[in-house]
Amino acid sequence: MEWVDLRSDTVTRPTPAMRAAMLSADVGDDVYGEDPTVNALQRRLADDLGFEAALFVPTGTQSNLLALMSHCERGDEYLVGADAHTYKFEGGGAAVLGSIQPQPIAHDVDGTLPLDKLAAAIKPIDPHFARTRLLALENTWHGRVLPLSYLHAARDFARARGLGFHLDGARLFNAAVASGVSAREIAGLFDSVSICLSKGLGAPVGSVLVGSAALIEKARRWRKVAGGGWRQAGMLAAAGMYALDHHVARLAEDHARAASLAAQLGEIHGVKLLGHHTNMVFVDVPAERLRDLDVHLRAAEIRISIGYLPTLRLVTHLDIDDAGVARTVKAFRTFFTGG
Ligand SMILES: *Cc1c(COP(=O)(O)O)cnc(C)c1O
């Protein structure tokens, strides 16, 4: 029996067809800009999303870091969600490595950062203050798709205030597929966008930063400084390319399975459904039963993350099929109702 791993969409393993694409990739030295497959991936995402240039990097954390360091200088500040990945889950990299001060802003329940709070956080130009230079959003945020109308308003706000505008679009394609708004239309509102290939898209490694040629040139320099200059990375780029060709439209299946999982878990007495958004389901269970639930699920070869206590986040992805959803529902049901 295969494990049903609902901890994250990072856990997917490359499919046989993706591995075959990796094996046959044409490669070269990417530090010299000579890896044809990396170059093709970068060109492809830049063109698809309507940007001048793109940069392939190992992780989303590095992609966001390079973006922040390319928009901001030492002593600058960026506005960011208090619960955003960039601020909270990236080791404070912008401050540690970029000397960039974050100004966290509390999210509204829908994940948006209220414009009045953003406006109030912008510092006057005065030697007392860091220079507010950038607004960074995240979409999807905890699975939620930010409303397009909000993205337009935030873009206009950033323009009016002379701020750069960055999107942590780790799951941009989930947002696009779920909302029916193209990734290009969403991304086009921003000055730079970071996209993860190794989440729902199912590649083993890699993120891509897109932006203007000037921004990507800076990011390329910072990538080398951060130790991210890699060589025959085309084998990894081939996986990304394969993912873009074959794994975007199918994200709708992950969303449908998350909806089905949510509906069925919500009917179990003892499980409180908080909601489901794109490929994520959020449920509360009684905190004192959590350990036992985890043991019970593991016995059925199901993994969940219990790090978000008391809320459980269950994430669907390429390696979760209908049988995996059914097994999960059954295991929850036997645990809470005994049958
Ligand atoms: C996963 C993720 C990242 C990047 O994470 P890495 O593990 O460094 O690839 C960035 N932002 C969001 C919202 C993410 O979920």
UniProtKB/TrEMBL annotation:
Its cofactor is pyridoxal 5'-phosphate. It holds the Pfam family Beta_elim_lyase. InterPro entries: ArAA_b-elim_lyase/Thr_aldolase, Low_specificity_L-TA-like, PyrdxlP-dep_Trfase, PyrdxlP-dep_Trfase_major, PyrdxlP-dep_Trfase_small. Keywords: Lyase, Pyridoxal phosphate. Its EC number is 4.1.2.48. One of its GO terms (molecular function) is lyase activity. It comes from the Bacteria. Residues 5-285 form the Aromatic amino acid beta-eliminating lyase/threonine aldolase domain. PANTHER family: L-THREONINE ALDOLASE, L-THREONINE ALDOLASE-RELATED. Homotetramer. Belongs to the threonine aldolase family. This is Low-specificity L-threonine aldolase. It comes from Dyella koreensis. The gene is ltaE.
